[in-house]
């Protein structure tokens, strides 16, 4: 593994991105310097929410400027870390490799990661999770269709090809999913696009 690794976690709303990113930090912290960023927070902090689409009930985000901002943040972290290494040349072995995790629903559309992990979840189970939120019916339906069609994965594939991994989180505990994600991050396994298929939900 490189000294500095950038991992993006994407997936349909409700698939567990925030939960898994935070648990990854907890599990990886003894071996690595881990930082978790939320792409939503970056967009809000930098005024990159352009509009709210009332009809479809989603935020319109300035993706181009979000991409620029995120990559400034990534470069800054890299520079800070390199500085840290060069200052400690004689004991670099003592320095933990760094992992920067950026989680959020649109990360698969943004540049800058070494690994993209898309969390997938059977739409039937996702439906129960989304019903607990105050989403309107149409928004739930849109999200379930997106998940069934694997939209985050197919969009992410255009940019990331074999750097893209899909984890089927259905019926898995947070700990199990975290373990699988760690194997991907540490190059011990890969789960290329195509191993998850929820199309039958769409065709029902
Ligand atoms: N493996 C799991 N098993 C059971 N429940 C889970 C699992 N992963 C996440 N959850 C639960 O599902 C809900 C949604 O998780 P979370 O908020 O992490 O999703 P998200 O992908 O970050 O959603 P959003 O895109 O809206 O930010 C939470 O209540 C969380 O506790
Ligand atoms: Mg979240």
Please give a structural write-up.
By secondary structure, the chain is α/β, with parallel strands linked by helices. The chain has one domain: P-loop containing nucleotide triphosphate hydrolases (Rossmann fold). The chain has 8 helices and 7 strands, in the order E-H-E-H-E-E-H-E-E-H-H-H-E-H-H. Strands 2-5-1-6-7 form a 5-stranded parallel β-sheet, sandwiched between helices. Strands 3-4 form a two-stranded antiparallel ribbon. Helix 1 (17-28) crosses helix 7. The model has no long low-confidence stretch (mean pLDDT 92). Residues 11, 13-19, 105, 129, 169, 172-174, 177 line the site of adenosine-5'-triphosphate.
Secondary structure topology:
Blueprint: E1 4-10, H1 17-28, E2 33-38, H2 39-45, E3 49-53, E4 58-61, H3 63-87, E5 98-103, E6 115-120, H4 123-131, H5 137-149, H6 151-160, E7 164-168, H7 174-185, H8 199-203
Parallel strand pairs: 1-5, 1-6, 2-5, 6-7
Antiparallel strand pairs: 3-4
Helix pairs in contact: 1-7, 4-5
Bound molecules: adenosine-5'-triphosphate and magnesium ion.
């Amino acid at each position: 593994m490189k000294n500095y690794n950038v991992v993006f976690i994407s997936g349909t709303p409700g698939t567990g991105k925030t939960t898994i990113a935070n648990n990854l930090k907890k599990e990886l912290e003894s071996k690595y310097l881990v930082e978790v960023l939320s792409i939503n927070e970056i967009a809000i902090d930098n005024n990159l929410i352009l509009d709210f689409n009332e009809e479809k009930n989603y935020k319109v985000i300035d993706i181009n400027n979000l991409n620029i901002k995120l990559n400034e943040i990534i470069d800054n972290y890299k520079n800070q870390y390199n500085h840290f290494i060069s200052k400690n040349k004689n004991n670099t072995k003592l320095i933990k490799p760094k992992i920067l995790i950026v989680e959020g629903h649109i990360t698969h559309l943004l540049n800058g990661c070494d690994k993209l992990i898309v969390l997938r979840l059977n739409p039937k189970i996702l439906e129960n999770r989304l019903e607990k939120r105050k989403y309107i019916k149409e928004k739930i339906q849109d999200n379930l269709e997106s998940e069934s069609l694997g939209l985050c994965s197919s969009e992410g594939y255009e940019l990331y090809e074999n750097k893209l991994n899909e984890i089927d989180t259905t019926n898995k505990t947070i700990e199990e999913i975290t373990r699988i994600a760690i194997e991907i991050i540490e190059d011990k396994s890969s789960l290329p696009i195509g191993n998850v298929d929820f199309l039958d939900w769409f065709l029902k």
